[in-house]
Amino acid sequence: MSFEIVPIDGQFAFEVRGLDLWRPLAQDIVDALEAAWSSQGVLVFRRQALSEEELVVLSRRFGDPDLIVRDDWQSGNHPAVIQISNMKNSQGRSIGGLGSGELGWHTDQSYVADPATGSVLYMVEMPRDNANTYWANLHLAYEALPDAMKRRIEGLRAVYDYLKRQSTYDDEKPMSEELRRRTPPVAHPLVNTHPVSGRKSLYLDPTTTVGIDGLPEEEGRELLDALNRHATRPEFVYTHRWQIGDLVMWDNGFLLHRRDPFDAQQNRLLKRTTIRLSPQRHIVPSTTTPIAA
Ligand code: SIN
Fold first, then answer.
1. In what side-by-side order are the strands of the sheet with 103-106?
2. 292 CA to middle of ligand 1, Å?
3. Does the pTM of the predicted model rise above 0.85?
4. pLDDT (mean) for 203-223
5. Looking at residue 209, what DSSP letter applies?
6. Angle 281-285-288 from CA coordinates, rounded to 5°
7. Which residue, judged by its Cα, is nearest atom 6 of ligand 1?
8. For residues 131-144, average pLDDT
9. How far apart are CA 271 and CA 90, in angstroms?
10. How many whole angstroms separate alpha carbon 67 and alpha carbon 79?
11. pLDDT at site 166
């Protein structure tokens, strides 16, 4: 099968043309996609048509699909598939998560000690007025930092708390004790090194971070605010204008993303898998050291 990987924003987002993702992919194609995914971060495929089973089969070619803590977002058919949607079922219950509100800059799974860092998002139904999704590249952001800031943040860890993240979502019930038990605060290094290229990258998540491990609260917050402002400057950002059938893969090890709000009266449905990418080929921030008291 002949295919090409073409830059679409001149920086880090690439469109892959010529592949039908519902068909089995040859190993050399998977290897080429893996390499582009791990080094560039965002891969866009247009005009796809996948069942949930096919989405999981595709995802498995890159790593084990992970079950995220939000089992209330799972599709009824496949536990590894979650639904991102504002739609409700006939009993008035949400069929997925994240509603129709704006989603601020965040990194999927950052609130997990050992995060599964691959996300695959497939657009099934969308509102007329669209709602763009944006990705910010944290390699580019790191490389553009002044040397003094690079020295200041080396070795520091940010603290992530899902309680903060959940408070930003539409339509959420208060956190259950069970969900709290499964999402204690965790810490991850602010700077990681790519295992293949050796490039350094920031790891951030303004929607979820509550401070810097070991720094006074205000100092930690100011430092994170400065890094977040820097990292989301327009020159580091790719804007995706969705079409039905788009499938986007991104690497949360070195990308932030956010989404525009949309009209709650219109339906939007995406299916997502979360993949445990290999730390030999991708940045996987993981920390077992306890957070300082
Ligand atoms: C997400 O943040 O995972 C969802 C993005 C979107 O709804 O476009």
1. 103-106, 255-259, 133-137, 237-240
2. 32
3. yes
4. 96
5. E
6. 125
7. 259
8. 97
9. 20
10. 7
11. 85
